[in-house]
């Protein structure tokens, strides 16, 4: 007892800035409550409770972030493990906006009473157990807490100020996604195969990230990003090791954004995952990973800029070329949008590697415009279905040829898809045009004129496969075996909001651009 008393007197409770963590705690708290709902609530009430809980949690977290914005613009908060600056709040806001739209699409059911998720994901595809689960109309609702856990990890990822926090946030973000990818209602074996690929390659990329962090810690003696940044200039005799460490750290992030040559998982996972999860991943994961990349690169990477810049420029160029030209030969619309996302990752990398004062804000605007349009596009894809010879509606009609005449069968779905495709192509009066303009302007200001010229050419080429879909929808005779199903209305709300935001950001971008001019990285 005499030994314990002096020790107790020296221990002090940690000073935790709970108000800074409020948005994250709201999301993770709702996720935990969602798990309890799954454990104790009756089956009949789980779905409405989970939908309400998830949507309310996301909207409440947005309100909390808005309340912190004016405070942080004046006085950023830098803690040993967590940084709350304008980059953090901007990234978290965009993640929550994307999550809100994605949750609406995830919650939706068609007029047939089915959702996008397997009645019982643990059932073997094609087994009698699966037939029984479908017959009993089981609907899995653990999807909602899994999404919230992933969103919580995404919100911490760009705010992490240490290698340990970065890695934990990366895993919290990724592990629920590995499960969600395997839960598709249709083409179950493809879904499960995609999940295994994503898990194995994700673990491999995490190993690169972890090894890079370990090397940085070994050379600098610290895990905090700002202290690593200060220590790098004074480390002598180990330049090659520093270059390798920073590159390996960036490899983990480049994998998450689908940059070449770390992109191989993207088309397979996008095609096999449930369509609402594909939209969620394509948008939210990119926001979190790119925001983290901006912080890591502008804090640590620029210290090694002259050694690594040409490698990263080559990665950006290769990413744009693969996303553009491999996308031209795709016959599945989900795989086409996967390669489109790879091309867009290359465009965003220009803004990251430009390392200008406005780079962080420009990248955030691009991610907002791309994320909203992406969720909306996949929301439309989920409503376009295939019908067999007996007029029985089955899975999604993801073959591009099946989209012939969709504009005549559903002007709303085709019109919304047209708008999102125009934004992807960077056509004026859409948010995609403004996003590309500000990122390319930063690239020119950073001296990467050749890379911007390549991006413009690739952007023009990608417009070809976007307009190929437009021609099919509006100027081709309808496919008799393709139908556009009605739903409960959640997807309709999400698609309408996404369309409005896409046009609003293209016509009136100034308020958001002015707000994002304050988005900077809190440098050491």
Provide a descriptive summary of the structure in words.
The protein is mostly helical. The chain is 70% helix and 3% strand. It is built from 21 helices and five strands. The strands form two sheets. Strands 4-3-5 form a three-stranded antiparallel sheet, with no helix packed on it. Helix 12 (275-299) packs parallel to helix 14 and helix 15 runs antiparallel to helix 20 (490-507). The longest helix is centred in the middle third of the chain and has 33 residues, at 188-220.
Number of helices: 21
Mean pLDDT: 89
Spatial shape: globular
**Helicity, as a percent range:** over 70%
Low-confidence segments: none
The succession of helices and strands, N to C, reads HHHEEHHHHHHHHHHHHEEHHHHEHH
Beta content comes to under 5%
What kind of oligomer do you see? single chain
State the secondary-structure class.
mainly alpha
Taking Cα atoms only, what radius of gyration do you get, to the nearest Å? 23 Å
In spatial order, strands of the major sheet run 4-3-5
Distance between the termini: 44 Å
Task: Give the biggest beta sheet.
Answer: 3 strands, antiparallel
Q: How many E-type strands?
A: 5
């Amino acid at each position: 007892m005499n030994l314990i008393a002096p020790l107790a007197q020296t221990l002090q409770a940690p000073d935790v800035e709970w108000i800074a963590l409020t948005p994250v705690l709201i999301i993770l708290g709702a996720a935990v409550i969602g798990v309890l709902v799954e454990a104790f609530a009756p089956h009949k009430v789980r779905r409405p409770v989970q939908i309400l809980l998830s949507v309310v949690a996301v909207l409440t977290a947005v309100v909390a972030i808005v309340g912190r914005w004016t405070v942080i613009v004046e006085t950023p908060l830098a803690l040993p493990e967590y940084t709350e600056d304008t980059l953090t709040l901007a990234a978290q806001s965009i993640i929550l906006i994307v999550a809100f739209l994605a949750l609406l699409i995830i919650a939706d059911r068609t007029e047939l009473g089915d959702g996008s998720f397997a009645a019982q994901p643990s059932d073997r595809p094609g087994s009698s157990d699966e037939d029984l689960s479908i017959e009993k109309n089981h609907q899995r609702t653990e999807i909602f807490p899994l999404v919230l856990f992933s969103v919580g990890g995404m919100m911490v990822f760009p705010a992490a100020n240490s290698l340990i926090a970065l890695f934990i946030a990366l895993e919290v973000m990724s592990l629920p996604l590995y499960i969600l990818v395997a839960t598709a209602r249709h083409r179950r074996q493809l879904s499960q195969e995609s999940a295994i690929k994503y898990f194995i390659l994700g673990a491999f990329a995490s190993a690169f990230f972890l090894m890079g962090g370990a090397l940085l810690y070994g050379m600098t003696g610290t895990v905090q990003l700002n202290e690593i940044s200060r220590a790098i200039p004074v480390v002598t005799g180990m330049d090659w090791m520093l270059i390798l460490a920073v590159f390996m750290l960036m490899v983990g992030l480049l994998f998450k954004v689908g940059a070449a040559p770390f992109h191989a998982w993207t088309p397979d996972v996008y095609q096999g995952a449930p369509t609402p999860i594909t939209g969620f991943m394509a948008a939210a994961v990119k926001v979190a990973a790119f925001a983290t990349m901006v912080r890591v690169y502008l804090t640590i990477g620029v210290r090694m800029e002259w050694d690594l810049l040409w490698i990263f420029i080559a990665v950006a160029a290769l990413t744009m070329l693969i996303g553009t030209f491999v996308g031209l030969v795709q016959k599945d619309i989900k795989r086409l949008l996967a390669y489109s996302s790879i091309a867009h990752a290359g465009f965003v990398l220009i803004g990251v590697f430009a390392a200008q004062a406005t780079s962080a804000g420009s990248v955030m605007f691009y991610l907002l415009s791309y994320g909203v349009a992406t969720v909306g596009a996949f929301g439309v894809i989920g409503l376009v279905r295939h019908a067999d010879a007996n007029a029985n509606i089955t899975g999604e009609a993801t073959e591009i040829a099946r989209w012939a005449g969709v504009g005549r069968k559903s002007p709303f779905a085709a019109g919304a898809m047209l708008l999102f495709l125009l934004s992807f192509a960077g056509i004026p009066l859409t948010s995609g045009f403004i996003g590309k303009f500000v990122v390319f302007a930063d690239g020119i200001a950073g001296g990467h004129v050749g890379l911007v010229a390549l991006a413009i050419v690739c952007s023009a080429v990608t417009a070809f496969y976007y307009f190929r879909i437009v021609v099919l929808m509006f100027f081709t005779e309808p496919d008799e075996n393709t139908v556009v199903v009605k739903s409960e209305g959640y997807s309709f709300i999400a698609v309408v909001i996404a369309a409005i935001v896409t046009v609003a950001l293209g016509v009136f971008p100034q308020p958001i651009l002015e707000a994002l001019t304050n988005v900077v990285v809190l440098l050491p």
